[in-house]
Each structure stands twice: as C-alpha cells, then as structure tokens.
Specification:
Distance between the termini: 36 Å
Helix content: 10-25%
Order of helices and strands: HEEEEEEEEEHHEEEHEHHH
Shape: globular
Strand content: 15-25%
Strand order of the largest sheet: 3-4-11-10-9-8-7
Number of strands: 13
Largest sheet: 7 strands, antiparallel
Number of helices: 7
Radius of gyration: 20 Å
C-alpha cells in the first residue's frame, strides 16, 4: 500500500501536471493510444462530478489515482537526442481492464467528461488489450446503427462494416484504464492524413499484433504496467515534435521529476556509475541513459546537435506518430 506522504506526492504530481497547459497526456498501450493536450489560452471546464481532470471543446481527461499507482519518470535515447515522460504504472496483477476481443455495446457513457455526452452510446472496439479498453462513443443514429452491425465481430474482421466506415463516422474516442480516461472529439484523419494539433488517438494494427504494453526502449520496472503517461514540456521540441530553441528551464524541471520519480539505478548509470550485479536494470537501458546524459551535456554547452544516423528513433515514437 502507498503511504499517505507518497499518496499526497502523487496527487500533487497529477494536479500540477493538469494545471500546466504545456504538459501533454497519454493513455493506452503499445499500438493503441489516446493523447490529450490543450493550448495555453484554451477554455477549460472542471468535470461535472468533481473528479480530478478537465474538459475542453476538443477532449477531456479524468484521473482516478489509486493507492498502488506508481509514477516512473524516464528518458529514452533517440536519433535527435532524447524523449522524456512520467509513466503512470499499476502492478501487473491489478491493471487489467475487460480485454474484450470483439466489438461490444456498453450502453450510455454515464462517466463522460461532459454532461452533454452522458446519453451517448459507448462501444468497446474489442482490441483485447491488457490495461486499456479502447472505445468509441456516439449519439448519431447512423453511427450507432453501423457500430451495432459490427457487434460480436473483431474490429478488423473483413465481415465487419465498422473498419471501413470509422473515419467517415468519426465518433468520439474514449480510452479507459484503471487510472482514468481520455476522450477525443476531433475527427479521425483519413488515409494519409495527419493527426490534428490537440487531442487525438492512434490505433496501429501492426504494433497491436506484438501484444506488448510498452516499447522495449521504455524502462518500466518488472511487474509494473504503464497505463498512462505525463509528457512535460520538452526542452528542444514542442508538443508536435517540432524543434524549438533549447530551454534550460524545461530541462531542469524534468530533471527534478527524474530525481523524484526515476529509477535510482538508471539515475546512477546516467551519472557514470556501474550497475551492481543484482541490479534489475538492463544494460540496454543503462547505455541509453548514458547516451542521454552525453547529448544533454552538449545541449547545455550550447552546441548544435544533429540527428545521430547510427541511433534509431525511439521505438515508442511510432506509437505517437
């Protein structure tokens, strides 16, 4: 069980992140993810039932922190430098959602982030994921009829009418986990389209087939499953991944999070220490931490850092592409 001081620290972490428009959020699994973000001047509304979270006209996020929620701050080496995040993890034994394997009608979404969406009908897409139920929601009669015609079939079954009409119907996407939910209201981009700025989702069948909860490059402790993520402002790129001038304050802010919520062994490796013989940290993750330290030092010295052609882009980047 989480001690009261730690529980208070987790709550503070979540509330501070929600209050910061420069912080983005994700919820999902490897191959199926919902992302929530907002503009600094974008109007927000509290959730109607007092839950931790907020809603905008483009999406909503609701959080339900439990005593066993464990934040894990980490950095991963990428060709352009590094990525960073705070994974919101639950024990593998208590993270499971419903793992439905076929499209299933769930009824009105009484927990919707906005009152006006609570009579809309929620459908689980049946992706069978461990820690997230990827759902859609609609009040449109045509969309409801289409979704009902695919109930009982896998989403990607050739006999299902849903897959080929989902873009045109563009229902709300609602991703659910034990730690909360993210709702996305923007239309689904068509083939070849790009994700909109703001809340959006990705469902990537090729990645889903791997059956993994997270990228191999993400250093999640054994026995824990990342269900959601906090993505604080990055020092050299904006929310859409575009380069910006290096921001030392952003860098320092995440290092503070890393000191508080990061893996101590990985932190030691990043700072030049050796892994002990009993360390659960893999050599792969330790080497990545050292590469991150090296490139961060270059940025802090004011050097111009180009992409490293010998280093692949972070595997998890494909999950957000």
């Amino acid at each position: 069980m989480t001690s009261p001081p730690r529980a208070d620290a987790v709550t503070t972490l979540l509330r501070d992140a929600l209050a910061d428009p420069g912080t983005a959020w994700s919820l999902g699994s490897f191959g199926a993810i919902a992302e929530f973000m907002r503009d600094p001047d974008e109007a927000t509304l509290p959730l109607p039932d007092g839950r931790m979270g907020l809603a905008t006209e483009r999406g909503a996020i609701a959080l339900a922190p439990s005593p066993d929620l464990r934040p894990v701050a980490y950095e991963t080496a990428v060709a352009t430098g590094w990525n960073h995040a705070v994974a919101l993890c639950l024990p593998e034994a208590s993270c499971a959602m419903n793992r439905r394997g076929v499209v299933t009608e769930l009824g009105p979404d009484r927990d919707a982030g906005r009152e006006r969406d609570r009579d809309a009908i929620l459908f689980d897409l049946g992706l069978g994921l461990l820690a997230v139920d990827a759902c859609v929601r609609t009040s449109d009669p045509e969309a409801i009829a289409c979704l009902r015609s695919g109930v009982g079939l896998p989403l990607f079954d050739p006999a299902s009418p849903i897959g080929r009409q989902l873009v045109a119907l563009s229902p709300h996407r609602v991703f659910l986990a034990r730690v909360g939910r993210i709702e996305v209201y923007a239309p689904i981009p068509g083939p070849g389209g790009t994700s909109p700025e703001g809340p959006h989702t990705h469902v990537l069948p090729k990645l889903l087939r791997g059956g993994r909860t997270h990228a191999a490059t993400t250093p999640i402790p054994a026995g824990w499953v990342p269900c959601a993520g906090i993505h604080p402002a990055h020092p050299y790129k904006d929310m859409m991944g575009q380069r910006i001038a290096f921001d030392v304050a952003r860098h320092d802010a995440f290092q503070t999070l890393l000191d508080r919520w990061g893996d101590p062994d990985l932190l030691a490796a990043k700072r030049g220490g050796d892994l002990g013989p009993d360390s659960p940290v893999s050599n792969r993750h330790a080497q990545a931490a050292r590469r991150v330290a090296e490139v961060q030092a270059r940025y802090l010295r004011g050097e111009t850092v180009e992409a490293d052609p010998e280093l692949d882009e972070d595997e998890d980047a494909a999950n957000h592409a």
